[in-house]
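Translate sequence into structure tokens.
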Amino acid sequence: MTGDAVAAAIAHEVKQPLYAMITRADTAFRWLDRSKPDLDKAKAQFKQMAADGHRAGAVIESIRANFKKAPRSEPRSTSTTSLGKPLP
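Result follows.
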């Protein structure tokens, strides 16, 4: 899988719960902005937003865990010089 494909997959997985949170926030504000606010329906949206936030966190943790499992590549050179100049 190319770096671009990995980035696209990660972006998709993270954006999904974030967009759900935005949609739920907009909906909750509409429930609150009525002449007679519906607090129960707004509360339900806020609870779902919290669940979406936890889902986004779980996605990020899953991605981090996958990268931790991946074997680390060794540096290409263990030399103390590069192009004849000492490395800092």
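Note: The radius of gyration is 23 Å.
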